[in-house]
Amino acid sequence: MVVGQKPSERIWISSDVEAENLKNLMRAEFHAHLSGCISRRMLKILGSRRRAPEFIVDNESALSTPSRSPRNLEEAFRLFPLIQAMVVRPEDVHEVTVDVIREFSEDNVVYLELRSTPRQTDCMSKGEYVRALISGVIHAKQLYPHICVRILLGIDRRQAVEQAEETVNLAMKYRKLQFQRLRGSLLCAVTPNGSSVFAGPKDGKAESDAVIIGVEISGDPRYDARKFLPLLEKARGRLPVISFHLAEIKENLDDVHDCLQFGPTRLGHATFLHEIQDDVLREACLRHVYNNRIPIGVLFVSSF
């Protein structure tokens, strides 16, 4: 078994015992997207609840062999419209959040950051979507206590500034208001079906224990992210994490310098920082990342 991309980076695992030892290492996952982590098994469960028989028939091929991973990225991305078609109610969001956390917990992940862009459907508002995310995390904490989960709300580069502002406001609102003090010494959240899920003893640290920790600019890298900078400047200091996917493709590097000057908490991808054509600008960007010790989440493979 080989782990790594380049020959110089490969770790050779010569036995099943060594592979098991590697699997048993405690890990932190900083770049997981909720929609990209929903298993086909869970999709099949959600699909079986749909009332319309034609929905199941139309998507039978995508839902078949739920344990098999997609063969390529094209096949993987065909699942996303299906996911959006089935995750339409707060109950769905809550359930898939708990299930995704379960899988990471079973993989010995002890710190998990989930990204998810709030969606509005006929059955829920964006606020209800966020509340369902939070209730899912708190519920999962009772089932899998060794894993710590935090959420970044996603802002798609394709969105208008007004839509991004709504997401930022949701992040700030629910960071403060996600816990309700009930039953004396306990903190709890209300699940989509109205039941209470308890988060543990009240210790006066609800703010530091907040599930929502910030926002992340991601989505189609061909769209310029600079339009969001004035909005994010207003949120600075109120959200601990403001993350950017930058330099994800070499065809669009125009916004990299300005976004770095904003001072993101961390970067995603940053794969082509070294490909900026202007020598002075490239050196300035690389030096800024290095001097400010900005962490980079490098993604070698999809979460699929």
Automatic annotation (TrEMBL):
Task: Give the UniProt record's GO annotations in the biological process aspect.
Answer: adenosine catabolic process; inosine biosynthetic process; nucleotide metabolic process
Cofactor dependence is on: Zn(2+)
MF terms in GO: adenosine deaminase activity; metal ion binding
Pfam annotation, one family: A_deaminase
Adenosine deaminase domain span: 28-176
Q: Which UniProt keywords are listed?
A: Hydrolase, Metal-binding, Nucleotide metabolism, Zinc
Q: What is this protein called?
A: A_deaminase domain-containing protein
Catalytic activity reads: N(6)-methyl-AMP + H2O + H(+) = IMP + methylamine
Protein family (similarity comment)? Belongs to the metallo-dependent hydrolases superfamily. Adenosine and AMP deaminases family.
Q: Which InterPro entries match?
A: A_deaminase_dom (IPR001365), Ado/ade_deaminase (IPR006330), Metal_Hydrolase (IPR032466)
